[in-house]
Amino acid sequence: MAAAPCGLLLVLLLLASKWNLRLHANRPSNVLPLLCVVLTEIATSEDSLDAIKTLRDEAVARLNQLGKTSDSKEFLERTFLSPAAIRAGKLVQEWMQDAGLSTWMDDIGNIHGRADGANASAPALLMGSHLDTVIDAGKYDGALGIVSAIAAVKMLNSNGKLRSYVRPIEIIAFCDEEGVRFQSTFLGSAAVAGVLRPDILSVRDRSGATLETSLKARSFKGTRDSLVQLRYSPESVWGYVEVHIEQGPVLEARGIPLGLVEAIAGQTRLKVRLHGAQGHAGTVPMAMRKDPMPGAAQAIVSVEKLCRESPTLARVPGGGGLVCTVGEIFSWPGASNVIPGEQVAFTIDLRATDDSLREEIVGEVEESIRSICRGRGLSCTIDKMHEAKAVGCDKDLMASLKAAAESTVLEVPGGGGVDAPAADDLVPSLMSGAGHDAMAMSHLTKIGMLFVRCKGGISHSPAESVSDDDVLASSLSLLHFLNNHLEHEQPAPI
Ligand code: HGY
Ligand code: MN
Ligand code: MN
């Protein structure tokens, strides 16, 4: 090795021993192997430890900036096509361009960044996650997958490998995964995968605005054709990779920064509306009321009881991990001295790893709600707002992501890593109870996902937190994946 880089490397490694990069909370710091992997990637461009710190600090700063790009001053809220969503899209486009990508916004609001590489017509490697958030959100859910993909591509570009990459690389910041506004989740990724609901343009938000009018209000065409043409052809895509926070406690409990997603639970979202007789709170005798509020209360408790105790659950080991949540309740006219006869509505979010079990429990839940309404003289409607089957991740893609995550976390080829504990302890495989854009993308192409440790497993909350070093690890795992893929697809010249 030439004297200069070698000397540089020595200086950096000495400096690095001071920079405590702890990836394993309960294991001695593995700073040297990690530094080696980064140095092998960037030392060739005569870069320094500063480059690594810049990479990490830039990604953290961008996550903080997105965390402040909100429609509310009190908490983080960035829902489909909101003013904050438009601002966030512009920021992401700048960062994608900074990484060497050509960018555009499509006709439903997804932000794309693409580099054609050596062969523009080769099937593209897609990466990304969602840019929208829930209400009172954390700043890593979705955003981490976008920021770390951009950071990895930026490193690839700074190593001069992006322009000659074996295939196009495209990062997509999806416009609506949470489905907060229209209740139908995956709007952005379902458009790219070509699996949008046929009636999607007529779905209404709380204000009664349809998706069509909302798109046109943002100067999008808002026509069926404009959405249909967003679909990518399967042959134009090699695969889809998404990095996302775990939104659960497993990785933290095991002191491990990265995990591999094996499968994503299926989900059903229902909207239940109960109708009774509106009236004066002070004059209608109790025996003469048709009050949907206690009806809804009884129905909600019965839903929870079924999801905890239904005998059907015994059909699948562990009850298929079935979970159920009533997250929203709404009453009209919503005045304390009015019997809310017009309507009481609530949502049901029901998930399980076993699709037939989920469908059977949904049937039991619907029957229970209907029988409670019959007993109370109420009418009810139950609308299925969204349904997604459980999806498995591609085994080969999982193996590549596992290798990339392992080399990020501990060992580098020739880097003199420490004795690795049992390999499957290093980057464990997990089930995802949370939904992700990868579910929609699985209709288009093979999918792979990496999970990143988050503090206390907390998510969908301002307490959501990822350490700076784990942000770095998520970017580097994607860089490793890209480099490994390049070597695998484009063997070194003999
Ligand atoms: O609800 C979910 O599982 C995801 O956060 N959209
Ligand atoms: Mn979420
Ligand atoms: Mn998410």
Automatic annotation (TrEMBL):
One Pfam family matching this protein: M20_dimer
Coiled coil segments of this chain: none
PANTHER family xrefs: ALLANTOATE DEIMINASE-RELATED (PTHR32494:SF19)
Protein name in the entry: Peptidase M20 dimerisation domain-containing protein
Highest taxon in the source lineage: Eukaryota
Cofactor: Mn(2+)
Keyword Transit peptide: no
